Amino acid sequence: MSAVAGATKANPIDCLLLTPTAFGSESGTLPVGEFSPGDEVKEFLTNECKVLVVGAGGLGCEVLKDLSLMGFGDIHVIDMDTIDVSNLNRQFLFRASDVGQPKASVAAKFINARVAGAKVMPYVGRVQDRDADFYRQFNMVVSGLDNIEARRWLNSMLVSLAEVDDDGDVDPSTVIPMIDGGTEGFKGQARVIVPRFTSCFECSLDSFPPQRTYPLCTIAETPRLPEHCISYAQIILWPKSFPDRKIDTDSPEDMQWIFDQAKERAEAYNISGVTYMKTLGVVKNIIPAVASTNAIISGVCATECFKIATMCSQNLDTYMMYMGSEGVYTHTFRYEKKPDCPVCSGATRDLAVNPNLTLADLIKSLKASDLRLKAPSLAKADSTLYMQKPKALELATRPNLTKTLSELVDDDDEITVTDPVFSGDVALSLKLNFSLDQPTVFGDDDDDDDEVGGKKNAP
């Protein structure tokens, strides 16, 4: 008893790791291993367990702080963004003098200087720019990303790294758990994903509403909302005025230009509501953030990391939602696997299509479907139907876009679909079933101005 008390006074973490418990990981509904209290598990936590934190924004800053104070000794963080003045009210690892610097580098430097024994390694860039070997080195990944596309890609990468033998058995040594956190205003969620064992992020894609977009024809011809005017300045006026330069969303000068142009257009159409803050929100797709929500969700994510690393307690199975606007309220449940999930199920989807549908319209329908693909490429076992990249292959396969499916494939043929929202090792298998009851034209041309292959109204 005195030893436990002494450990508690010296280090609360020691009390958890050196004391037996009846509530170890093996006793929960999502067991990942058996808890063995002692110095060995503490040694693993402080010196051997490598954790990757993806994102150093509002949630990522909190996660880095929590993990380092919990005793994780080998933390890595990746983020592509630089620090903006608007970040300073909630991303507490940054100061005014840090504006313009990479978030990952500044956050790592702050933690290393502030927390004794902490070792944080920063990486500046997109998660999609790192290969499988980079992610394979980590024991777990914490996602603090603020966009769905990057989270889908990261999820597919970790699922692809979990190796399955010919009998369908998963090699546990290749499984890298992912703890995904997200916040929006007073709402937040935390989730534990154990690739191949639990549902993955893609399984729950239907629970996330599609990002709001506006038809190009409305933006250009009949604007009715302040968002239309801002999008017009961003999508149409900027490329005309600066054809050789992309918008720097972290540049006050660029954002001021967009705001001025949007305000001028709004006044011409007698539209009110165009403000500088709304301009930032539309261009940067800013999600409302509350510092206390970030702190709560970060605490849950970091605690789940600690439990998975040490197995000292029962793990979350598998989803927790926080509803701060309703009071101090949380709801937990198990997110079940989606039987035809394109990432973790490996199942072939049956797709009824009209044989007279063009390949362009098939691609269009895939982008608008529940799959939410961004730029799909399609191939058969013996030929390539259409490839988005490289440019030479796109040009070579572009003529297929205007051909009908009956000219390119046979009834019940299987095609493979790849897309940037998935990592390179993940592909979707579709079995095309010809049916004359299906439409031959997809979508409404009045509301769709997508451009692919250099052709307006292509998918």
Automatic annotation (TrEMBL):
Domain of life per record: Eukaryota
Coiled-coil ranges (or none): none
Presence of keyword Metal-binding: no
Record organism: Chrysophaeum taylorii
Record family assignment: Belongs to the ubiquitin-activating E1 family. UBA3 subfamily.
Function of the protein: Catalytic subunit of the dimeric E1 enzyme, which activates NEDD8.
PANTHER family xref list: NEDD8-ACTIVATING ENZYME E1 CATALYTIC SUBUNIT, UBIQUITIN-ACTIVATING ENZYME E1
UniProt EC number: 6.2.1.64
Positions of region (Disordered): 440-459
Protein name per its UniProtKB record: NEDD8-activating enzyme E1 catalytic subunit
Keyword Ligase attached: yes
Residues at the active site: C217 (glycyl thioester intermediate)
GO biological process: protein neddylation
Pathway noted in the entry: Protein modification; protein neddylation
InterPro entries assigned to the protein according to its UniProt record, in alphabetical order: E2-binding, ThiF/MoeB/HesA, ThiF_NAD_FAD-bd, Ub_act_enz_dom_a_sf, Uba3_N, Ubiquitin-activating_enz, UBQ-activ_enz_E1_Cys_AS
GO cellular component: cytoplasm; nucleus
Gene Ontology MF terms: ATP binding; NEDD8 activating enzyme activity
